[in-house]
Design goal:
Blueprint (H helix, E strand, L loop, with lengths): L4 H8 L3 H11 L9 H28 L21 H8 L2 H4 L3 E5 L6 H14 L4 E5 H14 L2 H10 L2 E7 L6 H14 L4 E6 L6 H5 L2 H12 L2 E5 L5 H7 L12 H4 L14
Parallel strand pairs: 1-4, 1-5, 2-3, 3-4
Length: 274
Amino acid sequence: MLDHPTIDQLKALKLDGMAEAFVELASQDASGDMSHAEWLGLLIDREAANRTTKRFKSRLRAAKLRHVGAAIEDIDYRSPRKLDKALMQQLATCRWIAEHRNLLITGPCGIGKTWLASALGQKACRDDHTVVYARVPRLFADLELAHGDGRFPRLFRALTKCDLLILDDWGPDRLTAGQRRDLMEIVEDRYGAGSTLITSQLPVEKWHDVIGEPTFADAILDRLVHNAYRVELNGPSMRKALRRYPCWRPSLRRPPLQSRRKPPRPMASSPTPI
């Protein structure tokens, strides 16, 4: 079957969504009863949806999240880690990003901090926000190299101009003088212009010691903490639970085998001899 000339023109104009919708509508008998306005409306709707999907995939690739498949809808609220469901539902609206507020997620190792940060980052990408994910130790090493090879202005611009910057695994190593200066510049440029999400095993009260120099610590924490939401997790490691029970899923857990067995049928009593 030869392509319709209209399909070729739509593809040449990079209107792939409209081209796909045109092919589908042309193959349906019921489409002959539709008006021109209805045809045009369906084509435009498909093109808009197609562009939204492409834009989301592009933002997700650029974000480089640690857990790409993490989604806000898959958060497990039944695990005993003191996760506030009402607060997470509020954060899922991404209004805090539009308001340029920060988010601090703290808790012990394996509690799910990075996964939650990735889920919120994925939701931000869906809502058309630009996101950058970086592990703090690797970021500082990259910034140090960037100072020497000329990449620092471009890297600094990427870190400061995105809507949401996710800094994963903050602490516990004490910052060097160069790391303090770089962090101060990033936080200063982002203050009031973008949101920063930080995950850490250390409580916020100990971050001052990690930064080290009191003047820098006061300035950095004042810009990070004062308008930030806090998610403080506590409980057993979720990694250990999944490692011990790799097939365990709370919603699919079956009752013990013994409780599923039918009770044994009573044996028929032997007839009494006459």
